[in-house]
Design a protein that fits this description.
The chain has 286 residues and is α/β, with parallel strands linked by helices. The protein folds into 3 domains: 96 residues, D-Maltodextrin-Binding Protein, domain 2 (3-Layer(aba) Sandwich), CATH 3.40.190.10; 88 residues, 3-Layer(aba) Sandwich (D-Maltodextrin-Binding Protein, domain 2), CATH 3.40.190.10; 68 residues, Alpha-Beta Plaits, CATH 3.30.70. The chain is built from 8 helices and 15 strands. The strands form 3 sheets. It has a 6-stranded mixed beta sheet with strand order 2-3-1-4-11-5. Strand 7, helix 4 and strand 8 form a beta-alpha-beta unit. The relative contact order is 0.14. It binds adenosine-5'-triphosphate, 1-O-pyrophosphono-5-O-phosphono-alpha-D-ribofuranose (PRP) and magnesium ion. 1-O-pyrophosphono-5-O-phosphono-alpha-D-ribofuranose binds next to strand 9 and helix 5. This is ATP phosphoribosyltransferase. InterPro entries: ATP-PRT_HisG_long, ATP_PRibTrfase_cat, ATP_PRibTrfase_CS, ATP_PRibTrfase_HisG, HisG_C, N-reg_PII-like_a/b, N-reg_PII/ATP_PRibTrfase_C. Belongs to the ATP phosphoribosyltransferase family. Long subfamily.
């Protein structure tokens, strides 16, 4: 039997596009036709299962899938035994408590004895316990933001990103209780050969992520300022310095974190750098 691992990804929703883009950026090819729930890569030993996100932690814990890409919120809520291998940096959101906009709020004691609607009873329950608050948790599976306006609950605990869903439903965010982003999870006891394939995937993900946060910078500078410029953009080991056709000038090439570039831009220009080009990096292996 061919040795391949299985990864569970969300079929359609907030995680799907970014999960599949990341896999593609890792150079892994597969066919993802509409309605197809299983697909095998043509150039990497991996099979994809397209599932509801809520089911992913359970499938990975049971070993139906070896790996999964899912929100940390679902991993913690489902409380399954899985290993979180890597935070993936997309689908960033928070779980927050919210109440009707017009209500006075002086702290988390507001929720004592109140009814709170949520799809995250475990995370909310743990939070309330940590705050010594006794409240009734009313579990609903979606459209949580509607609960206060229909008299179902006095507060809600749900996912917030821009805050526009809360605003549109006349609610205000009062406590952030959990921060989430997409994570790569793995079954706890993978055999060594599966671990090896998972590590290969992780290696590629790291290279893609590192590339995304870094930029290749090229600039021209008078030779007398090369030392100063090198100290501002030191690069991976050290910058590449090539002579320009024009005497007394060099081209300096370096790799750096984009934030670091913007922090140093004024100093670079003051040191005489000009013709500065900033180029994206597809993959970066240290
Ligand atoms: N507005 C948002 N901004 C950023 N991330 C979000 C947002 N809403 C949800 N997420 C993240 O994406 C995950 C999936 O959200 P989605 O709304 O697609 O779930 P769902 O409706 O339960 O999907 P499914 O049909 O697969 O069960 C959430 O668990 C959360 O981690
Ligand atoms: O703060 P915001 O940017 O408004 O995002 C928050 C909303 O996003 C998610 O729902 P989604 O839009 O994915 O729809 P769903 O409820 O059908 O999952 C989540 O359940 C919130 O309702
Ligand atoms: Mg879901």
């Amino acid at each position: 039997m061919e040795k391949i691992i299985r990864i569970a990804v969300q079929k359609s929703g907030r995680l799907s596009d970014d999960s599949l883009s990341l896999i593609k950026e890792c150079g892994i090819k597969f066919y993802n036709g509409t309605g197809k729930l299983k697909s095998t890569s043509t150039n990497f030993p991996i099979e994809f299962l397209f599932l509801r996100d809520d089911d992913i932690p359970g499938y990975v814990a049971d070993g139906v899938a070896d790996l999964g890409i899912v929100g940390l919120n679902e991993v913690v809520e489902k409380d399954k035994n899985v290993t979180t291998m890597k935070a993936l940096g997309f689908s960033k959101c928070r779980l927050s408590l919210a109440i009707a906009k017009g209500q006075e709020y002086n702290g988390v004691e507001f929720f004592e004895g109140k009814n709170i609607a949520t799809s995250y009873p475990k995370i909310l329950g743990d939070y309330l316990k940590s705050q010594n608050i006794n409240a009734d948790i009313h579990e609903i599976s979606g459209s949580v933001e509607i609960a206060p306006s229909i008299g179902l609950a006095e507060g809600i605990c749900d996912i917030v990103s821009s805050g526009s869903t809360l605003m549109m439903n006349g609610l205000k965010e009062v406590e952030e209780i959990f921060k989430s982003e997409a994570v790569l999870i793995a079954h706890n006891n993978l055999p060594d050969w599966k671990k090896e394939i998972a590590e290969k995937l992780l290696f590629r993900i790291n290279a893609v992520q590192k590339g995304k946060s870094s930029k290749y910078v090229l600039l021209n500078a008078p030779n007398h300022s090369i030392e100063k410029i090198t100290s501002l953009i030191p690069g991976m080991r050290s910058p590449t310095i090539l002579p320009l056709a024009q005497e007394g000038w060099s081209s300096v090439h370096s790799v750096l974190n984009e934030d670091q570039f913007w922090e140093n831009i004024e100093e670079l220009r003051a040191a005489g750098a000009e013709g500065i080009l900033v180029v994206p990096i597809e993959k970066m292996i240290l």
